[in-house]
């Protein structure tokens, strides 16, 4: 039996206003420029609380808690799924707090996480004096600017949701120099793995074409990815049934859409490919907007969350292997 909780923070400076509870109560992030802006600190609490509950029981079998790093970069899930510890897991439960669900709500199966790829783009041209001899240069900035504009024009796909976004455009370059190098980060998403690949192929084509048009070269390096994997019906039913009897749970939804991307899907798929079952559980938490400086959770969600997860784990551990 496995429980996956992601634990990484984000490069966001936490609000210091007195109306921000962590600041007023003295538990604002101590590491300036970084904070838990997605509730992953509560995930650590879910993992430790569930682990303690299971340890205090008379369970039989093997229980593993996967404290996963690097979910925000969408790299940790794939790396953890490639390790040996997932191989003997028959059932896997992942969890996330908030996701626009209020306190007291449990979602037994979060589905439709968008498949995702993130690339670092490097465009290389040739420098020259921008006033004296611009014709001798090959402008990497102009090539990257055209590529950025062009990828936003990729047609949406009739088979489902697709997304593209470019950020972190940079050229450490003076205004009087034709830029030799420019970099950016691009991410694409799709409702299925196939739609994500469609977006990847389209981005590569547009970036390469823009670079060639300006006599430059382009390189795309994959730095993060996630796949789509939905929750198993059997575990959705189990979590929903157990959650209805938990104090502090006022609403149970069987399924809901993730709306973004998640790399717990790699662990879920690994378990399924080995003949097991998996689900991704949402614990409502009255959060302020995810990935914002004012993010905070309603701590009233912690105990019901631990209880739902613990009861699910103990039920599954009681089953014959």
UniProtKB/TrEMBL annotation:
<dbReference type="GO" id="GO:0016805">
    <property type="term" value="F:dipeptidase activity"/>
</dbReference>
<dbReference type="InterPro" id="IPR011650">
    <property type="entry name" value="Peptidase_M20_dimer"/>
</dbReference>
<dbReference type="InterPro" id="IPR002933">
    <property type="entry name" value="Peptidase_M20"/>
</dbReference>
<dbReference type="GO" id="GO:0046657">
    <property type="term" value="P:folic acid catabolic process"/>
</dbReference>
<dbReference type="InterPro" id="IPR017439">
    <property type="entry name" value="Amidohydrolase"/>
</dbReference>
<protein>
    <recommendedName>
        <fullName>Peptidase M20 dimerisation domain-containing protein</fullName>
    </recommendedName>
</protein>
<dbReference type="Pfam" id="PF01546">
    <property type="entry name" value="Peptidase_M20"/>
</dbReference>
<dbReference type="InterPro" id="IPR052030">
    <property type="entry name" value="Peptidase_M20/M20A_hydrolases"/>
</dbReference>
<feature type="domain" description="Peptidase M20 dimerisation">
    <location>
        <begin position="118"/>
        <end position="211"/>
    </location>
</feature>
<dbReference type="GO" id="GO:0005737">
    <property type="term" value="C:cytoplasm"/>
</dbReference>
<dbReference type="InterPro" id="IPR036264">
    <property type="entry name" value="Bact_exopeptidase_dim_dom"/>
</dbReference>
<dbReference type="GO" id="GO:0071713">
    <property type="term" value="F:para-aminobenzoyl-glutamate hydrolase activity"/>
</dbReference>
<dbReference type="Pfam" id="PF07687">
    <property type="entry name" value="M20_dimer"/>
</dbReference>
